[in-house]
Specification:
α2 (about 30-40) packs parallel to α3 (about 55-65), α6 (about 150-160) crosses α8 and α7 crosses α8. The protein has two domains: about 1-120, Response regulator (Rossmann fold, 3-Layer(aba) Sandwich); about 125-220, Orthogonal Bundle (Arc Repressor Mutant, subunit A). β9 (about 130) and β10 form a beta hairpin. It has helices spanning about 5-20, 30-40, 55-65, 80-90, 100-120, 150-160, 170-175, 180-200; strands at about 1-5, 25, 45, 50, 55, 70-75, 95, 125, 130, 135-140, 145, 165, 210, 215-220. It is of the alpha/beta class. The chain has eight helices and 14 strands. The mean pLDDT is about 90. The structure holds calcium ion. Calcium ion binds next to β4. Calcium ion binds near residues 5, 50 and 51.
């Protein structure tokens, strides 16, 4: 989620990141951001400090109070050392001074997500499945499989929650944020899971994706 009141900047960040495969949401005020972090889970929050109705630092404090694992990057025109130190001490993972290059922001987000979800690895290995997150490539038994963006995101989500039941609601939220109606998204999830499962099964006999009746799905490796 991008918390930024400069609309043009917010849009250019979100366009850039969406081209790179991220699902982005934006909040232009402190209040809007506050409401969203209490409702949804985000992998990463990009937050400006000077918002028209509040201080971005308080959003970070709020997230920490919620016990959130969300990665946090401050983007601010304030370049003083004190601001950076306070920001990082409050709980931000990184601090970028405006103006910055979108490609640098993108690289830093990927690095935070790698750290948080995949213990800092460039390569995710799970039995015969290998994922290279930086290039979004997936190999099964050393053979490249071609996934759609949503199938790829789904596989990553499964693997970072392996052997745990994940509900359709949490999959929908992960894949689409709040931009899609829950009921509609369940049909899409079913189709994406069916296709992902088929593509993996073409290269291995191991069927990892289980349907847990009435609850959701599980990526079972045990
Ligand atoms: Ca601002």
């Amino acid at each position: 989620m991008i918390v930024e009141d400069e609309k043009v900047l917010s849009e250019s960040i979100s366009d850039f990141l969406e081209k790179g495969g991220f699902v982005c949401e934006t909040a232009q005020t402190y209040d809007a951001a506050q409401e969203k972090i209490n409702l949804y889970h985000y992998d990463c929050l990009i937050v400006d400090l000077t918002l028209p109705d509040g201080n971005g630092l308080n959003i970070i404090k709020e997230l920490k109070k919620l016990g959130s694992q969300t990665g946090i990057i401050i983007v601010s025109a304030r370049s003083a050392l004190d601001d950076k130190i306070i920001g990082l001490e409050t709980g931000a993972d990184d601090y970028l001074t405006k103006p910055f290059h979108l490609s640098e922001l993108n690289a830093r987000i990927k690095s935070i997500i790698r750290r948080k979800s995949f213990e800092g690895k460039n390569e995710i290995l799970l039995n015969e499945i290998k994922i290279l997150p930086d290039s979004a490539e997936v190999f099964v038994n050393e053979e490249l499989i071609i996934l759609t963006r949503k199938e790829y995101e789904l596989l990553l989500f499964f693997i970072s929650n392996k052997n745990r039941i994940i509900t359709k609601e949490s999959i929908a939220e992960h894949l689409w944020g709040d931009e899609m109606d829950m009921a509609d998204s369940f049909d899409f999830i079913y189709t994406h899971i069916k296709n992902l499962r088929k593509k993996i099964l073409e290269k291995t006999n191991n069927d990892y994706i289980r349907t847990i009746y009435g609850m959701g799905y599980k990526f079972a490796t045990l």
